[in-house]
Amino acid sequence: MTDTHPSQTSGYAAADAEPAATADQRAKEAYFTASQGQLIWSRFRKQRSAMVAAVVLITMVLSGVFASFLGPYDPTVAGRNADYLNGAPTIPQFCDKNGCSFRPFLHPIERVRSIETNFRWVEQVNYDERIYVHFFVEGAPYRLLGLFPTDVRLFGMEDGNYIHLFGTDSAGRDIFSRTLHAIWTSLQVGTIGVLISFFLALVIGGISGYYGGWIDGFIQMITDAVRTVPAIPLFMAVAAFMPPELSSEERFFYISILLGFILWPTLARRVRTHILTERNQEYVLAAKMSGASSGHIIRRHLLPSFTSYIIVDLVISFPYMVLSETALSFIGLGLKDPVSSLGVLLQNATSADVMLNYQWYFIPVLFFIALVMAFVFVGDGLRDAADPYSDSHK
Fold first, then answer.
1. How confident is the model at residue 286 (pLDDT cuts 50, 70, 90)?
2. Which CATH number fits domain 177-393: 2.40.50.840, 1.10.3720.10, 3.40.50.1010, 3.40.800.20?
3. C-alpha angle 384/386/391, rounded to 5°?
4. The pTM is what?
5. Which of 20, 210, 302, 379 has its CA 20 to 30 A from that of 252?
């Protein structure tokens, strides 16, 4: 048995400790040299609920962007399947009593007369016949991403057959296609409203916080006045003056602008608070001594100092925009058929007949809840990640 000299043992320990110390040193250097965005991402990805919500949100946004490709039919065409009105969902399967198949298929639904129903037309499933689902089929023409004309759909049926994953409505329109387009429509309304609100909040909040004094007092008086205006009566007044012959695109545009002009005061208050805190810092005073204009200081120095907080506020305000559009369309003051939006689909599910007999009308409600909850969890995660004093970072 050979003896190991103490000096050799300490040398091995030092050699092992050196890589560990180097790794810790590199981690510290990476932390102190990381940008604000990298720090926020590092903190955000540690929150499991926020990461799951981000995956759900990205999936739903992509499904809305590619709704025309993912949906097998045009959602605005009434009577797309005139023989299947208020039809139940048709779910593809791989196995039946005749065996299994690698390709998904459906059993055709046939309309027949029977003695049991006094020779009235009834729908029956023919379990002896299979109709296979085809992928990348030709359908109604559309523009992919609004730019590239095409007619390719992800899946569909041939020979005049139909597939309805979420069933059909009273006009025979495919609810699955309508749901995907409704997500995209609500997101578009929310995006335009957020951008308008964002621009107004930066301009008004920036001027109010930078100049202060009587300018700040006057602007805050206007801000408080806008915040105290009740939303529903205002929407009803706007709807009363809105001409009934407006097209769907014009109504969409007006609703987006209205939401943007109503929901800017909260973000403007936050911008004002940040600028009031930062305007007396040394880098701002140095810019003033250098002869920089007020607009340049606000635009190039003050606003970038809390860009991450502004982004977080935008994400948090997104679900409120979607909720506002949904509420307006739900009470009949917003978008209307044939436009597919989440509010329109929710409005179609309010009748007692639907609640009792056509429960698949409530499938878009699940997507609406998932979309709003995903925005809420992502917004909360970003808010905690952007806050350097949050307990979640410790």
1. confident
2. 1.10.3720.10
3. 40
4. 0.78
5. 379
